[in-house]
Amino acid sequence: MLKVKHLTKSYKEKKVLKNLSFEIKKGHIAIFLGDSGVGKSTLLRILNNLESYEKGFFFLDDKPLNLKKINIDHTIGIVFQHFNLFDHLSTQENITLPLIKSQKKSKKEANKLANTLLKHYNLSKEKNVLANKLSGGQKQRLALARTLALNPKIICLDEPTSALDPKLTSQIAKDIQQVATNNQIVLISTHDTTLVKQLDAHLFLLQEGSIVEKAFTKSYLLNQEKYPLINHFLQSH
């Protein structure tokens, strides 16, 4: 289980996250909803040691989680909104390079794992294609595969379907749901109502840096009036 307690983050005089606390069990998905600027992406970046914070406590399986080591032990991984792929490298090399450089795997080991992931995400035919030649959906799947290759316990996805059409969103939703079934924790920042309705997830609505309402997707869909703030947000997007 991941526990985040009393997380506070400011940009100059503006508090982006205010005493934020939540917990998510292994094999579960958390979706953070909210308008731009409420701190959704900032939360994911802090967890990946890409942003500083003023206050906060982090625990994984009831043991303190040191975010300073995240880039070394890859306990947490992130798929960025704009993918951040190595455009000048092939699809396969996008997966093997981090494995060789960060985890010191042999080229043979890295290629074997890459080929398994490329097959799983239906990218085998594109393995020698440069990343910048892929479609939006292919780039998203490659970015997810590259992150999963490092075997993190927690996967963060920042606006994973922002550039995709509804059909591709459905496929990404299936991919995300499958990741959770592997007993990994999935954290998503999004405002995509189509994605929200296709995932079994915990919903957290952020306003002005705080969680103002939470629900489980199925509970919300069965009784939307019970969650007026989440309902208003989703109906207006």
TrEMBL record:
Transmembrane segments: none annotated. Belongs to the ABC transporter superfamily. Residues 2-233 form the ABC transporter domain. It holds the Pfam family ABC_tran. This is ABC transporter domain-containing protein. One of its GO terms (molecular function) is ATP hydrolysis activity. The lineage of its organism: unclassified sequences, metagenomes, ecological metagenomes. Keywords: ATP-binding, Nucleotide-binding, Transport.
